[in-house]
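User: Second chain of the day. Same drill as before.
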Amino acid sequence: MTRSSGAQAISLTDFTSQAGAGSVIVEYLEARGIKTSPTLALIAADRDTFVAQVVGPLLDGYKKGAREFSLEDEEKPIAAAVLEHMWSEAAMQWQQRQASVLMATAPLAMPAGSPAPAVGGAASSSSSEKVPKQFFS
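Assistant: Same format as last time:
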């Protein structure tokens, strides 16, 4: 799966396709209300919570209304890996997007030790504030 630079979110359809998710996983996620990659990313703060809240119910046989989602025993480790992979990629993409938003909206920082800009007056020109002409004697 390719990683996003943070500019554009990969759709959940692309996540499921790129991760090789079968129809049971796609339908399960939809039934759970997970329809976007940010929702997938934010449903759990860590892997263990994701496994408990999303993977576990599918492996145990999730039922919603008349629809039951179940897997054969030999399919369960694969489904778990696909879901964990999708969550990991979605979480990474979400973090990258948030970081790019913060970088785009953060004010430029002054270097440490820089004097505050003069407000309403001319800058001081004392000799102690001039840039040295030689670094070594």
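The radius of gyration is 26 Å.

User: Great, on to the next one.
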